[in-house]
């Protein structure tokens, strides 16, 4: 059967997909915070912004986060329209390495101006050894690998997404 | 790593990322080649929301946000079946919808279209497919609304849909249109879909689901990417 075609999420998704975050009176399907407390697991924060082809911050995107290492999984969602500087943020745990590969987290990016969502993933700057031998990371041209490594800064990891330009983030065909 | 023979995105029906008719794509669509990913467990699975409790009126947008009366507009029932690419129904999967009210106005604070809000209509809902992959919403037929893409641009009547399926590759966000809408041929978002795929986005009037003296029925069947009808077992 033919796949139903994708259409843009548009600019007005907030009250439907992220209602609580934007102050609408409708229950959220999920949030940006992994709510279950996991014994002995350190909670980490991922923070970033999304930039368009003119390097302007995008204030009406929606990011979904998915991670599953076979032991724990988490699906989160956050729109970039509720914070004054249009950042997104998630609180989660760092996934385990699976099959000797570097830990990573998948992000799905939706926005007005995207007819179809984009998949990316980020790795962790403090996993140097595992990153070096990771098969997916190594399938990315060397000069673009940095675009998908979240940088550890103080108490959080920073991961900015560039839709276009010199530092365009690597997007994947999954 | 798990090798996959799952389908890729069908470029014969899906829109291109860049479509100059839809001007916002120009600065927001990726330009560099996608990297083909070897699938790992994270791509073979996805959120299932089996523990999520739906409210009893979540699927009925005509009732889920009333304050002092009923929402204004033409009451409709929208139903359909969610399947994978080999035609198997996908049971127990979440659908989310959102839309403008009958006057073509969204509740979203950024929507400044000069049309009235409806105090009894929020315009969002969700439901789960049953064991046969069927879903059903009650709502109000959304109005057309203007937008800034080009001079005198109007969006055809549409309902936004969000679906998950069982893997993150089956994630779909789309829009359902109505049969016979004269605005379709002028709409760059609808027309960004390749000709072969366009009619898949248009619901069909359905007299069998139409409820006498209550609501007109429309059928909108959905096919998600992939061939996995049930969740992948982790271990
Ligand atoms: Fe819309």
UniProtKB/TrEMBL annotation, chain B:
InterPro entries named among the record's database cross-references: Intradiol_dOase_C (IPR000627), Intradiol_dOase_core (IPR015889), Intradiol_RC_Dioxygenase (IPR050770), Protocat_dOase_b (IPR012785)
The record's section on Pfam families has: Dioxygenase_C
The superkingdom of the source organism is Bacteria
Gene Ontology MF, one: protocatechuate 3,4-dioxygenase activity
Q: Where is the Intradiol ring-cleavage dioxygenases domain?
A: 78-106
Keywords (A to Z) from UniProt: Dioxygenase, Oxidoreductase
Q: GO biological process: any one?
A: 3,4-dihydroxybenzoate catabolic process
Task: Give the PROSITE patterns listed for this entry.
Answer: INTRADIOL_DIOXYGENAS
Q: What family is this?
A: Belongs to the intradiol ring-cleavage dioxygenase family.
Instruction: Please give the PANTHER family that the UniProt record associates with this protein.
Output: DIOXYGENASE, PUTATIVE (AFU_ORTHOLOGUE AFUA_2G02910)-RELATED (PTHR33711), INTRADIOL RING-CLEAVAGE DIOXYGENASES DOMAIN-CONTAINING PROTEIN (PTHR33711:SF10)
Name used for this protein in its record = Protocatechuate 3,4-dioxygenase, beta subunit
